[in-house]
Amino acid sequence: MPPAAAPGAALPGAALRGLWVDAFGPGLHTPAQVKQTVEDAARLGVNTLFVQAIRRADCLCLNASVPPVSDPELAPGFDPLAAVTAQAHARGMKVIAWVSVTGAANTAKPNTRPGHVFRTHGPAAGAASWLSRRPDGSWQEGRDAWLDPAIPGAADHMAQAVLSLVRRYPVDGVQLDRIRYPDGGAWGYDPKTLARYRAETGRPGTPAPSDPAWQAWKRQQVSFLVRRIALEAKALNPELWISAATITYQTPPADLAAFQTTRTYADVLQDWPGWMRAGWLDLNVLMNYKRDPLPEQAGWFDGWNAFARRVAVRSDGAPVAVAAGTAMYLNSPAVTAAQATRALNAGLGWVGYSYRTPTLDVYGERQSAAQGLRAVREVLRAPGGALAAPGPWTEAAPVARGLLGRITGLTVPGGQRVQAWQGGALVAEADTDANGYYGFAALPPAPLRCAWAASAGPRRCPPKGWCACRTCCCAT
User: What is the pTM of this model?
Assistant: First the structure.
């Protein structure tokens, strides 16, 4: 693996000062709320808004492939994503469309629109259900339902939802959240998922949740979804920032081998170091939600930041941007300020969660959101504070030469090994996903030949075997 950035050196994205704006309370539902949100963010001194667009397979917008949210608080005919993007851009701020990728529904507040995926492919859809399930067939995690990335229709639905935002809104990037399986490990037991696993691997029976081969296969399905979205989104807009909000549970790992023992990798099946190495992520925003008053967690915060910067490098040697996302809602303003400063001193960017709950007292309903914002602004904007000298984040998204292709017409489209050759040398190889898509990023600038092995012997990947991209991506 190429060496990481030198200790103390700033990574790309070090100028990022961000704020998550969620859709679970005031902030995005009316023109007045959006105006206030952008004004408050400007006064706070942030330069990037991570705006929740797709929440639970529905959108705080009017022009996505998924239906709008059905909240009564949403002003009729109002498009929050369009409004916040226009107003933030006018202030010199970037807007990243934040997407809960696998979110399907919350039973306490279901979307009531007829075309919503929970109605068409939910628990009552029988064999057409796209939900992730436990071995006993249950699908609820608390009150939430999750889509299974190993089900072909679900994977395509999730990819198209993100891509519709890229096509129809002038956002500066997309952030993939809930790009994983639910906590607990025992998920992915829909009959269609099990049938795919058996067909692709040749393994009979029903695997145990702890079966390493089963875990690795499901982890691969999550990674395939990241790959598909990243490569296709970059083909639509090479200047787009591809980001993920990533898991940092408990004790930080010392190295990649230790990472594979963490809950991030082994429980929720998220391999974000691999996504950075493959060139699918331009920006990794750690959900490093720790509480400094607990000494153990203060160490965890710094340890995860240190690990992330050590592995923030693509296979071609280019560094990847990393930002520490902090839990403002779990901490006092003083702790938020301290964590933001430590992140910046480590050469990372910073993103706070969240606009709606900027302090522990707001989260505990002992303080209004306006009071919390004022309190956190005072410490972040104080001399020497993380936002003392606000400025724009003008850095351009990195350009990576990549290829996205698809094999069609096979009985088993997933799990086909595809190789990329340049000048007689094998430069990369990857397996196809549930829909037959394969792809590579961070490729050297030379003509590329793809080949795949099927029962009839090696063949060129359809529809064309050579790619001489001069821009960011080419999709075959």
Answer: 0.94
From first to last of the 476 residues of the chain, give the pLDDT tens digit. 445 556 557 789 999 999 999 999 999 999 999 999 999 999 999 999 999 999 999 999 999 999 999 999 999 999 999 999 999 999 999 999 999 999 999 999 999 999 999 999 999 999 999 999 999 999 999 999 999 999 999 999 999 999 999 999 999 999 999 999 999 999 999 999 999 999 999 999 999 999 999 999 999 999 999 999 999 999 999 999 999 999 999 999 999 999 999 999 999 999 999 999 999 999 999 999 999 999 899 999 999 999 999 999 999 999 999 999 999 999 999 999 999 999 999 999 999 999 999 999 999 999 999 999 999 999 999 999 999 999 999 999 998 788 999 998 999 999 999 999 988 899 999 999 999 999 999 888 888 888 876 533 333 443 333 333 322 233 33
Strand pairing report for 94-100 and 173-177: parallel
Choices 3.20.20.80, 3.40.1160.10, 1.20.1640.10, 3.40.50.720: CATH for 17-380:
3.20.20.80
Q: What ranges do the domains of the chain cover?
A: 17-380, 402-475
Assigned CATH for 402-475:
2.60.40.10
Q: What is the largest distance, in Å, between two alpha-carbon atoms of the chain? A: 69
